[in-house]
Amino acid sequence: MARSTALPVTELTVTEIARLVAEGEVTPTEFVEAYFARIDEVEPRVQAWCALDRETVRSQAAALTAEAAAGTLRGPLHGVPVGIKDEFHVAGMPTYMATPDGRPQPEDSTAVARLRAAGAIIMGKTHMPIDGRMPPTRNPWNLEHTAGGTSSGSGAAVGARMVPIALGEQTAGSNLRPAAFCGVEGLKPTFGRISKYGCYPFTFSHDHVGIISLTMEDAALVLAALAGPDPRDLASRPEPPPPADLNVATIRPPRIGVVRNVFPERTEPVMREAVDRSAARMRDAGAQVTDVLLPADFELVWHVHRLVGGAERYSFHAGRYAEEPGAPLAIADVAGRLLPASYYLHAQRVRHYLWSTTQDTFLELDALLMAVAPSPAPRGLESTGEASLLVPWSCLGYPAITVNGGLSPEGLPLGLQLVAPPMADYELLRVGAWCEGVLGRLPAPVL
Amino acid sequence: MRLHPKLTEEEAFAWLMEQAKQLGPLQRPEELERTLRPVAQSMAAISAVVLPPEFEPLFP
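^ inputs. structure came back:
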């Protein structure tokens, strides 16, 4: 136990934890106890977790410890503790989003099953807003501010170093925003890159399984374990997973396009300055940095997202009304119920047009640069902040990451967003790793 | 409701409000106009776009 409490869990990355376990330096049980100690220390203030089952976690860790001692590693994440957003089914644990009564789920979502197969330890479920009710989760950088959402607990849990990595999900801006607000990094992959089977839906074609991590190397390691086709998710991509190793030593300075229309006018000065300051540092470090204008009709993407999302949301959630005929219709379901099919389909056609034409923007670029959110994490817990700068990439399915853009004058993280063309997830993570080397990472917040 | 020629926001909003009256009880009826106004804006924006046939609906 003494060794567990001495482990520097506020500094360790997934890559380092996996290496220490593989080399027999530290056992999974020691890591679990170290993270439990961290949870005991900060969770009463941060409130990231909605379900923690320490007995089950210790049982998983003991089994993995025994296997490692016998020279068997299940996979590249052997002994790595992971947090899971409530939205994902975990066998034996509740999914409050799906069943508020807290009944345990019978099986794992595909993402959780693949984490287990890679040797990860499922630490517990993290808070998210449910039916418009905000979670109690607080931002570890300032407890008076939101942690973002809807992956609120996952962002805060990694931000406060209660786990080194967590699963999130993004339908509008729900994975990268909490990552950025909580001062860590994140990946929203190409749509379908990670199976969403067993991830309780907000919509069908906007939901992305995402990763909230401390580094791009960690995100790549976990993406490699999670990606790949899944016969239980018809929208999952057929391509095999990308490599787990970013091969950082071979990364050359990237070609970055700073988006100068559509996004800046939706962004507060403090964020615009963070983008410009960071772009200048990238240029000084050798990146080719140019200004970019998105197509004039790009703004249609917000309209497409609203109509498609509303219709799909109602299509899924209408089943609730079958159980209670005559029940009042939720106001959020009205638009989806009324929208004519011709409008839903035409919105999908416009989506196709935007998906196609926006790729031309990348002909001479590796990534687009913009802010993650219009502002740093807002004060208060009644909102999780604004998703507008993330919506386009959730709608079009392009991969996006967040990296460090510094701190605001009030000491809140300023997240940058980098975006690449579809299926360039691996290349984007390499760009992110290069940016991480130039811009640095934020330290653990003082709690 | 027609798709083309393009719909105005007010046409879309009036149609949505009229249709909403047929839905029966709502959980927070006082929020209906605030909920449907942006939907009407989006319907108007989308209906103004006429695309060549190669752009079929995308389910990414």
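Chain B has a mean pLDDT of 95. The CA atoms of residues 17 and 33 of chain B lie 8 Å apart.
thumbs up if we can close this ticket
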